[in-house]
Amino acid sequence: MNIGLYFGTFNPIHVGHLIIANHMVENSNLEEVWMVVTPHNPFKKKKTLLDNYQRYEMVYEATEEYPLLKPCDIEFGLPQPSYTVNTLMHLKEKYPQHSFSLIMGEDNLQSLHKWKNAEVLIEEHDIYVYPRVVKDKKEVKVSCERVFFINAPIVEISSSAIRSSLRTNKNIRPLLPQKVWEYVDKMNLYKK
Description:
alpha/beta, 7 helices, 34% helix
């Protein structure tokens, strides 16, 4: 099975994440998309993250009605900070029957050369890219045979803007899947 890996802190997961993941699985040769909840992205500050399992629970709730989208907590048991190349090596060992592809935004593709062992990622895995509004768009020099640009909707919803809006008591319900909104509201998350 060809699995697309959509990495993120999902802090919180929002409808934009679901739109992209669902579009990828419905409009490519990916058979499932695993939403990999990242404990600590080396490029983000750790103090802003909710507990790993709270974020995993929100991803679980958000994907429950989408049979081709699955929550994944594989990185919780791996050394931190999380590096994609290490996660892929672990997944290939644990699930040798699957092939794994990366899903990333156009902005991340532009900075892929900064990732740990980027050349291994490019050589061994397909990369599915969704469009983003990118300032100072640069030509990306990545082997075209393994990179697939998917004409997905451009979604400009950010988890940080959602957190900020929640702190100031703004109504962000339309930006979150219903079950995620209920979880955030019940647990009184992101208010501080």
